[in-house]
Amino acid sequence: MDLRIGGESAYAYTGGKAFDPRLPAIVFIHGGELDHCVWILQSRYLAHHGHAVLAVDLPGHGRSGGAPLANIGAMADWIVALLDAAKLDSAALVGHSMGSLVALDCAARYPERVNRVALVGTGFPMRVSPDLLEATKASEPEALRMINFWSHAAHAHYPGNPGPGFWVAGGNLRLLQRQKPGVLHADFAACESYRSGLERAAQVKCPALLVLGRLDAMTPARVGRDLAGAIPNSMLKTLNDSGHNLMGEKPDEVLDALVEFLRA
Amino acid sequence: MAAPRPLQFDTLSLHAGQRPDPVTGARATPIYFTTSFVFRDADHAAAMFNMERGGHVYSRISNPTNAVLEERIAALEGGVGAIATASGQAALHLAIATIAGAGSHVVASRALYGGSHNLLSYTLPRFGVETSFVDPRDLGAWKKAIRPNTRLLFGETLGNPGLDVLDIPSVSAIAHEARLPLLVDSTFTTPYLLKPFDHGADLVYHSATKFLGGHGVAIGGVLVDGGTFDWEASGKFPELTEPYAGFHGMDFQEESTVAAFLLRARREGLRDFGACMSPASAFQILQGVETLPLRMERHVENTRKAVEFLARQPGVQSIAYPELDSHPDHALARKLLPRGCGAVFSFDLKEGRDGGRRFIEGLRIFSHLANVGDAKSLVIHPASTTHFRMSDAALAQAGIGPGTVRLSVGLEDPEDLLEDLSRGLRAAKA
Q: Is residue B399 part of a domain?
């Protein structure tokens, strides 16, 4: 679905079904240097199970126009503008990595617009080392390879993995490489400079779910647990044997956690 | 900041795509001999059919043993995923059928495996897909042959029979300028010798029957998607960028920014054409892939010795191997194939058609058969076998001489192989 926000095009995948704003809405927010398709299985399932789904491409990412937004607060404001454009009074927000900070900030600052918030592969502070931040600017291809390496727990699946034929790490790397130059640095700088995570966490009024990967090297589970402890009404789900790319490495487990949370 | 060290090729050959089964502890990849897979409940079944959850439904579409092979080859190639097929020919057909249909056009190198040439020249035109063949070394010809309805450029990493080295960087640049993908048959080189995606190719396929399997026991193919081509930006591929009535109105590019081709190839091509690989074959090919780096190194080492030996023989008129200064693609081979130019090459005997026949019959170790890429050394004399009906003039047009012999050098002791070649050369002179 194509919307207009602030004079720019804004794309959102609707889960393979026509968008119906009368249904309970869910907005999926991707992480840095990625796009909507990281949520394909989860968003498609929920769209076919009674929800109005918008899996967005943030400004400057994927099919959306404009430049990447400079900070997490601006991205949260953009999500509210998206709700307005889609004529939604409120929605559940599901965010991954950078997108989880956006969802957190939005839920805290716009409590009347956010009825649930799920944070996947999350933590606060979401630190980016000075060397990596510099690499995102000076040597983007190398930085992408490092980020992709640190985003996965293992080189292989167990038998019966749910993505037949897909090399998850290879797919994630290509998706990272597909974004426009400059987006990576903007996104990682936004994560690094976000300072109000704990303050916002304490302000969240709606139910919250945190889904963490026990082997996450980008947002370690320990930091995720600290954030969960700062959110008044939160549940925590830690997935064994998963790294930061939880939707790719453990798609069914992430979906099951979301279904249970949204149903509760 | 310590840079991470990703797993290297040799390690991926053994481990990519598979870990020990957590239930049984099986270290090797199990062969999942089952046609179908049980659903957890009705909702799970519906979700599987609508691509809301991943997993296996029916072994024509996917199978856990095949999935390990697919992921392993994708990892070795540096792609986003792969599809195992019944044969290399099935992989080529699947690639073309996914993005071309009646009224489409392909530009292909004329230096192709005979089976591929047959498919493009005679069979696909019956279904409305035409092909223009070009000299792979003539970059202007590639460009000139592109038409508004062209959907694909296609060549082999090492062409048949003269081992023309495909200039992948230049041909892919021509393809991309025309908003078209480049498909490459990488059978002769395998990812150990050449990774076409690193040089600009968009799709790669293998006859896994050859070096990937390596032991001449299983027929199979693998089609790999590099995830690099932007089908949406091209604007020429509605099969991937517009809703498909045959699969829930799915817009594959919208579903997956980088794997749209692979999604349609599996959800349509494997489903409808059905040229899937048996899990037994996948298992056998996986055994070969585990030793691919070791075997390819030895294949190339033995081949270099055979080439060097034959080059010194008075009964040999010429040898087509890109590592030789005399080969027209020598410089390109040094750039694209620093690890070697494979283990299949042709040479011409001065004794002509009869000499070729005598050479073959004089050999004791090289097996006379129509295959390449086996652990065992193989030989064929096209003028008395695959092309025996053709006159010398017709053979010349196909780049084959009456005394042309093709070798696929195996893993035997190199001195034994050289002795066998000596035996053949003595017989050829008689």
A: yes
Q: Which of B288, B316, B344 is the last residue of a domain?
A: B288
Rounded distance between C-alpha atoms, residue B44 and residue B420, angstroms? 61
- Give chain B's domain count: 2
Do B138 and B13 fall within a single domain? yes
Tell me which residues of chain A have a C-beta less than 8 Å from any C-beta of chain B. 13, 16, 35, 37, 40-41, 44-45, 48, 62, 129, 131-132, 135, 142, 145-146, 149-150, 154-167, 169-171, 174-175, 178, 251-252, 255
Q: Is residue B1 part of a domain?
A: no
Query: The domain spanning residue A112 has which CATH number?
Result: 3.40.50.1820
- Both tokens of B368, joined, read 């006379």
CA separation for the pair A192, A125 (Å, rounded): 8
Cα A90 to its chain centre, rounded Å, is 18
What is the extent of the structural domain holding A123? 2-263
CATH number reported for the structural domain that contains residue B14 in this entry: 3.40.640.10
Reported ipTM: the value is 0.95
Place of tokens 């230096």: B111
Question: What is the pTM assigned to this prediction?
Answer: 0.96
Question: Tokens 């517009």 — which residue?
Answer: B242
Beta strand B316-320 with B344-349: parallel, antiparallel or unpaired?
A: antiparallel
- Out of B4, B66, B80, the one facing A149 most closely (by C-beta) is B4
Per-residue pLDDT of chain A (264 residues; tens, 9 = 90+): 999 999 999 999 999 999 999 999 999 999 999 999 999 999 999 999 999 999 999 999 999 999 999 999 999 999 999 999 999 999 999 999 999 999 999 999 999 999 999 999 999 999 999 999 999 999 999 999 999 999 998 777 665 566 789 999 999 999 999 999 999 999 999 999 999 999 999 999 999 999 999 999 999 999 999 999 999 999 999 999 899 999 999 999 999 999 999 998
Single residue among B236, B266, B288 that ends a domain in this structure? B288
Smallest Cα distance from B53 to chain A, Å? 6
- The residue of chain A with its CA nearest to that of B58 is A164
